[in-house]
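TICKET: design request
STATUS: open
ATTACHED STRUCTURE:
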């Protein structure tokens, strides 16, 4: 797939899926790229906008997890966005929201992606005396009494450092969640992550993935000591996808 095709597709797709970002201004989306991450959680993140690896587009129902336009700390599905760090494990990483409230809870921040707000974290990874890689994370729980069985993928837009997306299921109790590694990007990028491409990292119990058991969508930055930031927006569960034309 050549670059021109990616750009023309991306603009159309972004306006179809995220139409609110395109009201009266198609120029917003033309710089977006569409990528997928790598299934290997320990591998080097790589974009898939290269030959023989076409991106997907949504074809079925969408369930909004959050688009942050209301500016509050709560997902439309009911639960609240959270952040965590590795200090309880003995490392020294930190994470903060650019616009936390008085209690330190993360809140959406004004954004440059054509919508009003997105969710931002900035973080410092610092291994300290911890024997494994430093990590921080952020995410939101989903109500577990809802039927997610028809959903096959999660989509979101992001900009910033490399990270992992986690689709957590309630039947995993040791935190070795299904995940995918996503590459860093300096431009707002649309990612469609098929559940079939997720993998557990492998240090915990192997548990079959069942979409109906989804309990959280979360993100994690993990690796060598560094400082970076990530913005996320327009997070949806998708019931169908197909290869982009
Ligand atoms: Ca938004």
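STATUS: resolved
RESOLUTION: sequence designed for all positions
ATTACHED SEQUENCE:
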């Amino acid at each position: 797939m050549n670059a021109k095709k990616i750009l023309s597709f991306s603009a159309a797709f972004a306006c179809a899926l995220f139409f609110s970002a395109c009201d009266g201004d198609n120029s917003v989306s033309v710089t977006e790229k569409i990528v997928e991450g790598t299934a290997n959680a320990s591998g080097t993140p790589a974009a898939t906008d290269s030959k023989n690896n076409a991106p997907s587009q949504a074809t079925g129902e969408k369930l909004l997890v959050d688009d942050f336009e209301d500016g509050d700390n709560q997902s439309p599905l009911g639960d609240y966005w959270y952040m965590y760090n590795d200090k309880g494990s003995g490392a020294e990483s930190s994470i903060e929201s650019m616009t936390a409230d008085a209690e330190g809870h993360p809140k959406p921040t004004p954004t440059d992606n054509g919508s009003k707000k997105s969710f931002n974290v900035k973080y410092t990874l610092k291994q300290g005396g911890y024997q494994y890689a430093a990590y921080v994370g952020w995410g939101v729980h989903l109500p577990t009494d809802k039927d997610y069985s028809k959903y096959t993928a999660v989509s979101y837009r992001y900009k910033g450092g490399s990270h992992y997306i986690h689709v957590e299921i309630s039947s995993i109790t040791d935190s070795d969640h299904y995940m995918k590694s996503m590459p860093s990007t300096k431009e707002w990028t649309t990612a469609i992550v098929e559940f079939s491409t997720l993998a557990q990292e492998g240090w915990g119990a192997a548990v079959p993935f069942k979409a109906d058991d989804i309990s959280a969508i979360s993100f994690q930055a993990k690796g060598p000591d560094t400082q970076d930031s990530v913005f996320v927006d327009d997070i949806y569960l998708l019931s169908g996808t197909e290869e982009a034309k």
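CLOSING REMARK: The chain is about 5% helix and 40% strand. Residues 3-17 form the longest helix (15 residues).
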